[in-house]
């Protein structure tokens, strides 16, 4: 799915953006990205490899505060952000579109896709046919709303 690939492509820049705003621990970074995108936070399995990579590249530094590891931008990271302002802007614009999409219909579409995907092997031919028909009708209605009656892709 294109959206998931795009999220992964922008995650590094969203993480750097959040850390540039204020030094943060991992949970806070996940929470801020969740707020920016209006969606579930990235999983620890997605976030911590990004943090590790950024640390190895010396874009971020860490220090301990009690039991928490706090991540902050390094001088090299600040320079990287300035050199990649365009990518940061694109990541934030993507996050905004994702948030707006989620507000309009994101959870409904994800829920429908999830229920169909989980049950597809058990559906009868009639159920599959009906789902195909209403999905095609839905697609046409979306194009009509978005493109003002033109069926463009």
Automatic annotation (TrEMBL):
Residues 15-83 form the Transcription regulator PadR N-terminal domain. It holds the Pfam family PadR. Gene3D superfamilies: Winged helix-like DNA-binding domain superfamily/Winged helix DNA-binding domain (1.10.10.10). InterPro entries: Tscrpt_reg_PadR_N, WH-like_DNA-bd_sf, WH_DNA-bd_sf. This is Transcriptional regulator, PadR family.
């Amino acid at each position: 799915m294109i959206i998931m690939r795009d999220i992964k492509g922008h995650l590094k820049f969203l993480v750097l953006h959040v850390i540039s705003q204020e030094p943060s621990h991992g949970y806070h970074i996940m929470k801020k990205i969740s707020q920016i995108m209006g969606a579930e936070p990235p999983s620890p399995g997605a976030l911590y490899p990004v943090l590790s990579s950024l640390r190895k590249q010396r874009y971020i530094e860490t220090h301990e505060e009690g039991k928490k590891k706090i991540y902050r931008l390094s001088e090299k990271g600040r320079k990287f952000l300035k050199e990649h302002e365009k990518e940061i802007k694109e990541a934030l614009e993507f996050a905004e579109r994702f948030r707006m999409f989620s507000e309009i219909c994101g959870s409904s579409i994800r829920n429908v896709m999830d229920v169909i995907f989980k049950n597809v092997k058990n559906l009868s031919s009639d159920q599959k046919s009906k789902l195909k028909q209403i999905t095609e009708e839905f697609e046409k209605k979306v194009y009509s709303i978005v493109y003002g009656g033109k069926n463009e892709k």
